[in-house]
Design brief:
This protein is mainly alpha-helical and about 90 residues long. It has one domain. About 60% of the residues lie in helices and about 0% in strands. The protein has 3 helices and no strands. Helix 2 packs antiparallel against helix 3.
């Protein structure tokens, strides 16, 4: 028999409502947007690299596409971790 505390998706209706209220708060989305913007900027810097960078011939569309994809992944991670960290309703895991 499995311990009830170990079931991740076995939540009460109150817990489900509490989590949804956290996801619609303005502060949660401000923090999540800040993390997504930082992730996009970090991805852009990593793609550009520190060595020879030719501004004229660089594929800016690819840079924007990959950075936007990283930002979306960051937002999804924030939503997934909304109820896990020490501060409930905060998109951080720590």
């Amino acid at each position: 028999m499995m311990n009830k505390q170990l079931l991740l998706f076995d939540v009460t209706p109150y817990e489900r409502k509490s989590r949804m209220s956290q996801l619609v708060s303005v502060s949660f989305w401000k923090l999540a947007a800040e993390r997504a913007a930082k992730t996009a900027a970090q991805t852009a810097v990593a793609l550009i690299g520190a060595e020879a960078f030719d501004v004229v011939s660089y594929d800016w569309g690819q840079l924007a596409s990959v950075s936007a994809g990283a930002a979306v992944v960051s937002l999804l991670t924030s939503v997934a971790s909304a109820d896990i960290g020490p501060k409930k309703g905060d998109p951080s895991l720590v």
